[in-house]
């Protein structure tokens, strides 16, 4: 159990900066608690808080009432008083009742969790109208079940009586109703705002152009890679969640074929579900990509854990079945033995540096090879008694469009040569996408 306290040299004379205590459960499996806390500290820093202490507790499972046990809560309260902390951040999402109980036990400070922190950073970095709406939606969904606690909290900080002068059930009901109403409004507005991008996306789908999506852990270098591969000028920064919007650019492959490449929001360990939901339409491009370029910061000590975290999110958004190419980026910052370790584990991966350009030609060639592998676009008319082939098409091919006609189901599909072989007898139109052929 490690408890170490750190005092910050510069006492806050300028803008009031939150002095934060980080708290994590050490479960002895999965991500190491030290690594997880280091990342939480980076998140706190990005959100503008200064970490003054970190506390951990060995737990096989979080306490359902208070996350950590009672003794640890007392220690948190004491540490907060000693160090003048204004904020305590838990490294896992707290349930509304855990949050409530902890607020009762550590009354002088604000209580937050990893989710709230990530939402805060997203709110800070959202620039487009769509991004702002998506973040607000995620925040409202997170807030809705926590409104009661919030009211108590605000009351207390406004100098109200101890836990007694809540808004009352009727006020709380009103607030919940307003929150739900706002969630509805945000969802409708998002559909409207996404309209233009959605049209462009559909046009790309219809065009049959091979679509590549960059995915990866936040700060892995996705935007830098897009900028290096295309003429894009996407914002790049050494901070978490620098870019939240999706940007699509065309890229010409060595043999002259054009594909599209999309950069999108980064993922993180324990990415809040409300954010995944809210960013659904932004992530459509990932779900439907012909190829994912999974950009990994190969110079990061947690590279393998980060790969696993990204794969988990891909599963959550329904993109786990997309063909993926693992790319270890930041080759310029890698020790030679690290490079060997990465390739030993992922022998088919590409090692490159978006910064120096090393390995990018190999990356382009690999994209070409993938595009050639998925080379056929077919328009097929399947009679209604061939449900087996419709099922096959849905399972093994990419469906570009579907139309029900008198004679049967007309599908435009993009399929591997092998799957196309089964569908070909019903083909109305066949197009080989392979360029020179
Ligand atoms: N040394 C080195 N740094 C790189 C390389 N590629 C990107 N970076 C740096 O890594 C940081 C993050 O790069 P981004 O391209 O913003 O990363 P991202 O994956 O788009 O991150 P988010 O948008 O925050 O999710 C920046 O400081 C980049 O300059 C590389 O090949 N080598
Ligand atoms: Mg980015």
Q: Would you mind describing this structure in some detail?
A:
α1 runs parallel beside α4 (about 115-125), α4 (about 115-125) runs antiparallel to α5 (about 130-145) and α5 (about 130-145) packs antiparallel against α7. By secondary structure, the chain is an alpha/beta fold. Strands 7-8-6-9-10-11 form a six-stranded mixed sheet, sandwiched between helices. Strands 1-3-2-4-5 form a five-stranded mixed sheet, with helices on both faces. It folds into four domains: about 5-115, Rossmann fold (3-Layer(aba) Sandwich); about 125-195; about 210-375, P-loop containing nucleotide triphosphate hydrolases (Rossmann fold, 3-Layer(aba) Sandwich); about 375-430, 2-Layer Sandwich (Alpha-Beta Plaits), CATH 3.30.70. Helix content is about 45%, strand content about 20%. The chain is globular and about 75 Å long. Bound molecules: guanosine-5'-triphosphate and magnesium ion. Guanosine-5'-triphosphate (GTP) binds near residues 223, 243, 330 and 333.
Write out the distinct hetero groups bound to the structure. Answer: guanosine-5'-triphosphate, magnesium ion
User: Which residue ranges are poorly predicted, with pLDDT under 50 across at least 5 consecutive positions?
Assistant: 1-13, 157-165, 432-437
CATH architecture of the largest domain: 3-Layer(aba) Sandwich
The mean pLDDT is 87
The biggest beta sheet, please?
Answer: 6 strands, mixed
Q: Can you count the helices?
A: 16
Fourth CATH level, the homologous superfamily of the largest domain: P-loop containing nucleotide triphosphate hydrolases
| Tally of discrete structural domains | 4
Q: Which radius of gyration do the C-alpha atoms yield?
A: 25 Å
CATH domain topology of the largest domain: Rossmann fold
Oligomeric state of shown chains: single chain
- The overall strand count is 15
Strand arrangement within the widest β-sheet reads 7-8-6-9-10-11
Helix content: 40-55%
Strand content: 15-25%
CATH class of the largest domain: Alpha Beta
The shape is globular
End-to-end gap = 64 Å
């Amino acid at each position: 159990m490690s408890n170490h306290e750190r005092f910050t040299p510069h006492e806050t004379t300028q803008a009031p900066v939150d002095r934060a205590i980080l708290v994590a459960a050490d479960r002895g499996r999965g991500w190491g608690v030290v690594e997880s806390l280091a990342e939480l500290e980076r998140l706190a820093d990005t959100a503008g808080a200064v970490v003054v202490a970190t506390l951990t507790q060995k737990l096989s499972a979080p306490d359902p009432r208070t996350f950590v046990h009672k003794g640890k809560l007392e220690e948190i309260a004491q540490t907060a008083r000693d160090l003048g902390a204004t904020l305590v951040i838990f490294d896992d999402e707290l349930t509304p009742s855990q949050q409530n109980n902890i607020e009762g036990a550590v009354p002088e400070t604000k209580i937050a969790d990893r989710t709230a922190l990530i939402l805060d950073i997203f709110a800070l970095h959202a620039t487009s109208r769509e991004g702002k709406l998506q973040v607000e939606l995620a925040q409202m969904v997170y807030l809705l079940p926590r409104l009661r606690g919030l009211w108590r909290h605000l009351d207390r900080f406004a100098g109200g009586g101890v836990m007694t002068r809540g808004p009352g059930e009727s006020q709380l009901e009103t607030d919940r109703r307003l929150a739900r109403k706002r969630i509805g409004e945000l969802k409708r507005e998002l559909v409207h705002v996404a309209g233009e991008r959605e049209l462009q996306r559909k046009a790309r789908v219809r065009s049959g152009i091979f679509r590549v999506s960059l995915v990866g852990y936040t700060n892995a270098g996705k935007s830098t890679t897009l900028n290096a591969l295309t003429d894009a000028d996407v914002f790049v920064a050494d901070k978490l969640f620098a870019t939240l919007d999706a940007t699509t650019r065309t890229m010409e492959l060595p043999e002259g074929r054009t594909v599209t490449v999309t950069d999108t929001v980064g993922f993180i360990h324990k990415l809040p579900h409300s954010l995944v939901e809210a960013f659904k339409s932004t992530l459509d491009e990932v779900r439907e990509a012909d190829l994912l370029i999974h950009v990994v910061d190969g110079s990061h000590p947690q590279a393998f854990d980060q790969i696993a975290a990204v794969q988990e999110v891909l599963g959550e958004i329904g993109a786990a079945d997309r063909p993926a190419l693992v790319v270890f980026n930041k080759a310029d910052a890698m020790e030679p033995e690290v490079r060997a370790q990465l390739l030993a584990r992922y022998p088919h991966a590409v090692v490159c540096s978006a910064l120096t350009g090393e390995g990018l030609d190999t990356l382009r060639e690999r994209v070409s090879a993938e595009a050639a592998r998925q080379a056929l676009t077919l328009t097929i008319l399947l009679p209604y008694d061939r449900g087996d082939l419709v099922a096959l098409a849905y399972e093994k091919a990419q469906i570009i469009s579907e139309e029900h006609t008198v004679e049967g189901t007309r599908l435009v599909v993009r399929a591997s040569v092998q799957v196309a072989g089964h569908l070909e007898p019903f083909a109305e139109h066949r197009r080989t996408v392979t360029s020179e052929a």
